[in-house]
Amino acid sequence: MTTTHDQHDLQTRMSLDHCVKCTICETHCPVMAVTPKFPGPKFVGPQAERYRHGESVDQSLDYCSSCGTCTLVCPQGVKIAEINSQARAVMKKNHMPLRDRIISRTTLLGKVMTPIAPIANWKLSLRPVRWFIEKLFGIHRHAPMPRANSRTFSSWWKKHTPPTPTRGKVVFFHGCAGEFFEVDTSIKTVEVLEFLGYEVVTPKQGCCGLALQSNGLFDAARRHVNKLAQQLNIEPGTPIIASAASCAGMLKHEAREILGVNDPKLAEVGTRVRDVCEFLLSLAESGDLPLDFQPINETVAYHGPCQLKSQGMGLPALDVLRLIPGLTVIDSEATCCGIAGTYGLKKEKYAIAQAVGQPLFDKVITVNPHLALCDTETCRWQIAASTGAEVQHPIWMIHQAYGLS
Hints:
The protein has helices spanning about 5-15, 25-30, 40-50, 70-75, 80-90, 100-105, 105-115, 115-125, 125-135, 155-160, 175-180, 185-195, 210-215, 220-230, 245-255, 265-270, 275-285, 305-310, 315-320, 350-365, 375-385, 395-400; strands at about 170-175, 200, 240, 275, 300-305, 325-330, 370-375, 390. By secondary structure, it is of the alpha/beta class. The radius of gyration is 21 Å and the shape is globular.
């Protein structure tokens, strides 16, 4: 019996017939540019798919970082990254590493680390501990790790007294990192939305399953994203504003394009999801965004992450930030920072991730070695660990410009 997932996978694989072997995807692939271990998205994607018959014996496929650049630049519309992700899931199905199962459970990690945040952060700063984790689990000793927070966003939200709204409602989607690790980013996002007059509704919400998907755990990822869609649908028809760009992309298109989830409810929720800077830019374009920003005399580099670019909306944060007087924002113009979610954490891929991100790191240090901006959590952690700069979500600057800090 053919399932809807099988039918979708077939449709994705059929897109390979549009491949004309132009190699544009290869010239843009950040991984292929730095290592011979990955022969390129065309080779392991459309070219190899014709001979796979459901399973790949070529382990080089696992060196694809799933950044999605190949699909984005393909002039023929071939779903290269999606083909690679689906093939890798089949390849790893019967021998999934314990490490990949662990680092995919972001909510579980947050729940474990939050109650013991000071101890967890101290332990993870110790070289012997990181060496032991590398030997036991294969997580590189120098890979960026999230810093545990002593409070969750939910605990702050329970005590929060919102101002009287003057506009309509929005639903806030913070993602796992926004609940446990990037709590201040979630708080600042809510405060900006409330400053603009919106009534912010924040339902209980779980993981979107993105880390599970990128590690090949498709069944678990489908369960998570379907449940999340139900949780976020607390106010049908209401815009859903996300401060986690990568998680927003999961709801917008990746659950459908990679996992083959065809649930109408998820599709409807996905059409309402907006990245917070995408939402603010739409307000600015309609004349509904207050522009009485306080000056910020700073020059910073901004990096638009892969999973934001894959959503086809440009770089809205750049346009919004450039409305702030005194603030000079330099586009990094880098393809990828290298971390690609959990890719750069892995022992065998750490050096590759660092090489991919090196042009970006150099740009950040040149522009401002103390401060940079980026929309996604793991990319911020990667840039910070590799440059020593403080790396913030763009909403921090907007929050400051509105005099809310």
